[in-house]
Amino acid sequence: MPYIDLQNELPGIRGLMAYSPATAKPLNELAEILLRNDENSLSRGERELIATYVSYKNDCFFCQNVHGALAGYYLRLGIAEIDAIKAGERRQLSRKMQALLQIAAAVQQGGKSVTPSNIEAARKAGASDREIHDTVLIAAAFCMYNRYVDGLATWAPQDRQFYVERAPQRAAEGYINTPLK
Amino acid sequence: MPHIDLPPHVPGIRSLAVYRPETGQYLYELVQILLRGESPLSAAERELIASYVSYRNNCQFCYQSHAAAARCLYGDDAAIVDELLAGKMDHLSEKMKALLQIAGKVQILGKEVQPEDIDAARKAGAGDRDIHDTVLIAATFSLFNRYVDGLATLTPTNLDDYKAMGERMSTIGYVLPKQPA
C-alpha cells in the first residue's frame, strides 16, 4: 500500500502522476523527449533498454517491467532475452550499446563514478557527444523515477505478462496525454 | 574538463541546459514547480532538502548553489543551512528532521524508505503532501547530481560565485538559460 493517500488505484508512477498533475507534466515531457522522440540517433529500443537496465540496477520492479516490455517490443526481444541483457549478457548488442550501458551503470552508482575511460570506450565504439549526453541523462532520470515510485511504496501488477501485453499500446500512445486508466 | 563538448565558461546544470535545451526546458520547469510552486513546505525548506541530498551525493555544484539559495531564503536563520551540512539539526523543527531523514533514505534508494520513517514524519506533523514533495525533491536531485557530475561539468571553486547564484535562484527562481552570445 502506498505511503500516502493517492486518491486513486493506478499503479506505479501513474498513481503519483494523477495525485500530482503539476509535476507530472514535465516528468512526462522529459520521458517523451528522452525515450520516444525520433530526433535521436539512438533508437527508441536502445533508449528504453538503458532505462530498463538502470531500473533493474535500482531494483524498481514497476519501471524495469514497463520499460523492459517497451524495449522488448521495439527490439523484438522476449522477457527472457531482456532479462539476460539486464543480468550482463551483451553479445547480441552493438559495441556502442555495450559501452553506453557501462556509462549508464556508472551513473547509477553516482555521477562521479563515470570515468574518462568509460567515455573514451564509448567514443571508440562510435558514440557521439549527443549519444553520451542522452545516455547519462536517461540513466540519471531513471535514478529519479525509480526513487519516486519506490520511495512512496506504490503498487505494481506482479504478472510480468501484463506489461508485455500493454507495451504496443504504450508505444503508440507515448508518454504525454496517456489516458490515466 | 567536461566529458563532452559543452559551452565554455558556463557552470553545472546551466551548461547542460544550453547544450540540450529540448531536455533542459522540462528539467527547469520541474525544479521551478518543485522548489517554488504550491507546497506546504516553504521555499527555504525545499532548498534545504535539495542541498542536503546533493551534499550526500557529493555534488559540489548542486549543494553549494542550493545552500546559497537556502541561506538567502532563510534570512536571519541562515545558520540552519551550515549547521545541517555540518551534520547538526538542532535548530530544525521536528517535522523537518523527519523529512530530512526520509530524503536521506531516498538518496540511497527508493526502497530504503520504511513505514517507520513515514510514521515518524506524520507524528511530527507532516501531511501527505509534505511527504510526497520531500520524496520527489530528493529523487529529482538524485537526477540532477548524476547529470551534473556524470558529464563532469564546470564546477566553480570560488564561494562568491555560489552566493551570486543563490541570490538569483532565491529571487527569480529557475529560468532556462539562454544560449550565451
**Number of H/I helices of chain B:** 9
The biggest beta sheet of chain A reads: none
Rg on CA atoms of chain B, Å:
16 Å
Query: How would you classify the helix and strand content of chain B by structural class?
Result: mainly alpha
CATH level 3 topology of chain A: AhpD-like
Our count of domains of chain B comes out at: 1
Which chain pair has the greatest contact?
Answer: A-B, 48 and 47 residues
Could you name the CATH class of chain A?
Mainly Alpha
The CATH superfamily of chain B is known as AhpD-like
Q: What is the CATH architecture descriptor of chain A?
A: Up-down Bundle
Name the beta content range of chain A.
under 5%
Note the gap between the termini of chain B. Answer: 21 Å
Please identify which CATH superfamily of chain A we are dealing with: AhpD-like
Estimate percent helicity of chain A: 55-70%
* Tally of distinct domains of chain A: 1
If you compute it from the alpha carbons, what radius of gyration of chain A comes out, rounded to the nearest whole angstrom? 16 Å
Number of strands of chain A: 0
Write down the secondary-structure element order of chain B. Answer: HHHHHHHHH
> Number of helical runs of chain A?
9
What's the end-to-end separation of chain A, in Å? 18 Å
| Reported CATH architecture of chain B | Up-down Bundle
